[in-house]
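Session log. Operator J.P. requested a structure for one protein chain; no other inputs attached. Running the standard single-chain path with token output.
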Amino acid sequence: MKRKGFTLVEIVLVVGVIFILAAIGAWRLSALKSEANSVAANSALDVVQRMQQLSDVEGITQTTTTALDRLKELQSQLSAKGHNYYQYNPTNLAEKVDYDANAGQWVPRPIP
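Structure written below.
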């Protein structure tokens, strides 16, 4: 007698292995996502700190204190001085960094 199909035990084993692999993949994916967010925040902070250092060297002063407005002001003033290589999206940068007016420095935003 020839078998045409799978037994219930074989199907349960295959589904169980697929479930275990999916659980491991989901766990690893969440770890990769948090790692990527951390790297993006550090990269954004580095870019903004370099922009601030360059503006300090150029003698540029900023009048705004919110992160987004300050980034826009930094970019426009640096462009006016001929530094066009800092043309990043200020909204994306402002989501990852914040300006601490009391300390006078850029700090990373907490990652949710």
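Operator note: The first helix runs from residue 8 to 58.
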